[in-house]
Amino acid sequence: MSKKSMKSRFLGSLRSPQTRVRFFSLVLFAAVISFVLYQGTKSPVVIKVNGEEQQVFTHANTVGELLQARDINISEYDKVTPSLNTKIVSRMTIEWEQAKEVIISVDGNQSSVWTTESLVKNILEEANIEVTEHDQVLQGLDTEVGADNKIDIQKAFQVTLVDGLEERQVWSTSTTVANFLKQQEIQLGEFDRVEKELEDVITPEDKIAVVRVEKVTDVVEESVDFAVEKKNDSSLLKGKEKVVTKGADGKVSRTYEVVKENGKVIEKTLKSEEVVKEPTTKVVAVGTKVVTASVSRSNTEAPANGKEFYVTATAYTPYCNGCSGYSAAGINLRSDENLKLIAVDPNVIPLGTKVWVEGYGYAVAGDTGGSIKGNKIDVLVQTKQQAYSWGRKQVRIKVLN
């Protein structure tokens, strides 16, 4: 039978209503069976996208084919587990973490990094940004990056802090003096001051000095010098003085306001004072008596009365080296060539005393000398030759008054 005849007979059979129904039912059944069989051969897979899970069925051979078939575009920074070349296994889980761009600001200088990490410290490690214990990370190293995907870092630098007398090196991330002091927990007293403006921006190697200012009230007792009053006394030789009344210092209580900077007094202001004890004036008698001596040299006979003892006697002239020409009692030694006068130790023979000296005659004790101590005298002569002739000798002396 020809193909044409077979086609005619087949088409003729389809013209029958019952035949057509049976035919189309058979085709539909075959299609359903084919679909069921097709779907039944797909592998079930769980896809986890950024933490959210979804189950899908696939004929894909690899993870990459599956994601591509579902129009999932993977960037070079995304993280897919397992890898894209991994073969599909029924009921496997595929995790896809989309990378996000994180902006990192270090002291205001910004850079960006694409990452799938969420912890700040992991992101910084991935970006090769080192953070020391002194640096300040505003978001916290152990926290997750925020929705704004930003990390702010302030790098620490060293600053010299002088707090009163204490100086030390400290780390700081502050930008102003006020922030720095707050970070270092420096409390300022009422009168303390900082040698920089609080609004000043600090930079590495800056020196921040805090001056500790203290105002205190100090009450002290202080000595008041006594006054000295001098009165003329005609009973004393001229040039001699005698204390009549001893002086005594007084006391006064003074109240001061004292300002100290770093423990050092820089200002002291007297606020009040009160006399505790009045000072006692010292009274000094000043001698005005002038001694005269005009005893004749010829009168050498010893007097009958007077205290008698022996002394070592030497001689001196009014023209010796370093001599002023006046005696310790104020007598002009050059005014009278007949002047009879001896130098004495006032503790043995008081000045102004009339004496008789063996071999010299009547005289007045009117001078002193550095080497005249004890029972020793120096007789006045007018020339060096006379002094040499006198020499040194033991003589008898009588004190007459």
What would you say this structure looks like, in words?
The chain is an alpha+beta fold and 401 residues long. It has five domains: 16-97, Roll (Ubiquitin-like (UB roll)); 100-154; 157-211, Beta-grasp domain (Ubiquitin-like (UB roll)); 216-230 and 238-285, Single Sheet (Resuscitation-promoting factor rpfb fold), CATH 2.20.230; 290-399, RlpA-like domain (Barwin-like endoglucanases). Helices cover 16% and strands 40% of the residues. It is built from six helices and 24 strands. The protein has helices spanning 3-14, 17-40, 63-69, 120-126, 177-183, 384-390; strands at residues 43-49, 52-58, 79-81, 92-97, 100-106, 109-115, 136-137, 150-154, 157-163, 166-172, 193-194, 207-211, 213-224, 228-237, 241-245, 250-261, 264-277, 282-289, 307-316, 341-343, 354-357, 361-367, 376-380, 393-399. The strands form six sheets. The protein has a six-stranded mixed barrel. It has a four-stranded mixed sheet with strand order 2-1-4-3, with no helix packed on it. Strands 6-5-8-7 form a four-stranded mixed sheet, covered by helices on one side. Strand 5 (100-106) and strand 6 (109-115) form a beta hairpin. The longest helix has 24 residues, at 17-40. It is rod-shaped, with a radius of gyration of 63 Å. Mean pLDDT is 84; it is low at 29-40.
Strand-helix topology:
Blueprint: H1 3-14, H2 17-40, E1 43-49, E2 52-58, H3 63-69, E3 79-81, E4 92-97, E5 100-106, E6 109-115, H4 120-126, E7 136-137, E8 150-154, E9 157-163, E10 166-172, H5 177-183, E11 193-194, E12 207-211, E13 213-224, E14 228-237, E15 241-245, E16 250-261, E17 264-277, E18 282-289, E19 307-316, E20 341-343, E21 354-357, E22 361-367, E23 376-380, H6 384-390, E24 393-399
Parallel strand pairs: 1-4, 5-8, 9-12, 14-18, 19-23, 20-22
Antiparallel strand pairs: 1-2, 3-4, 5-6, 7-8, 9-10, 11-12, 13-16, 15-18, 16-17, 19-24, 20-23, 21-22, 21-24
